[in-house]
Design brief:
This protein is an all-alpha fold. Helix content is 80%, strand content 0%.
């Protein structure tokens, strides 16, 4: 699932813009709860659906400057988003009983083998090994990919697949912040609104207001009873 997600996302990027590619990949935020509901009858709270919707709207405002048609690259990217959704859902199921490091190593290993196998079947030549290229691959492979997925896998033991997808939507927000800090990108009003919606979406998904209200109500009742008993 992970390899297919990377494959369709990368090939799709060849035929569409980076902003549309990022937005359509992030559609997995909305797909995860529905796929989980259909396949495994997962009980998803309404706040999780609302959080996912707010997050994907925020990502759209953050990533897109207009949406000019739907092309082959967009379609391939959307398929990649479906596979990313399955990767999140299946990880949530296996992480409860399996070793975290084993799951990550198997996923990364299988994805790497599939990638090399596809390259050989296509007859592509091996890239030249240069210092800059090697350091880039090591950084992207270990820090941006393997280390990131290891943290995600470890965290999924303590949260749901839908909440995982919503939290991962903050990738767009961090991308914007680092672009501002490192590349001096100018933030627009649209980007600011998009970032705010992503944060609100994550908070809505994570905070159970009904539970908090009920807990405070119970606490108030307990304090009232204790006060009456003391006065009595």
């Amino acid at each position: 699932m992970l390899y297919l997600a990377f494959l369709f996302q990368t090939v799709g990027l060849s035929y569409t813009t980076p902003s549309k590619n990022a937005f359509l990949t992030a559609v997995n935020v909305v797909l995860v709860p529905f796929i989980g509901l259909i396949l495994y009858k997962n009980n998803i709270a309404l706040r999780a659906y609302l959080g996912a919707l707010l997050s994907v709207i925020g990502i759209g405002l953050l990533s897109l400057e207009g949406f000019s048609g739907f092309n082959l690259g967009d379609f391939l990217t959307l398929i990649g988003a479906v596979f990313f959704s399955f990767q999140i859902i299946l990880t949530s199921r296996f992480v409860r009983t399996e070793n975290i490091f084993s799951i990550v190593i198997v996923q990364m290993g299988v994805a790497a083998i599939c990638g090399v196998g596809t390259m050989l079947l296509r007859g592509d030549q091996l890239p030249e090994f240069t210092l800059t290229g090697t350091l880039s691959v090591v950084y992207l492979g270990f820090f941006s990919t393997m280390f990131g997925f290891m943290l995600q896998t470890a965290a999924q033991r303590f949260t749901t697949d839908t909440e995982t997808a919503v939290i991962l939507s903050m990738e767009s927000l961090w991308g914007m912040l680092f672009s501002i800090i490192l590349l001096q990108e100018v933030i627009t009003t649209q980007m600011g609104i998009g970032a705010a919606l992503i944060l609100v979406g994550v908070l809505v998904s994570e905070i159970n207001l009904k539970k908090i209200f009920f807990k405070r109500k119970q606490q108030a009742i307990s304090e009232k009873i204790e006060k009456e008993m003391t006065n009595g």
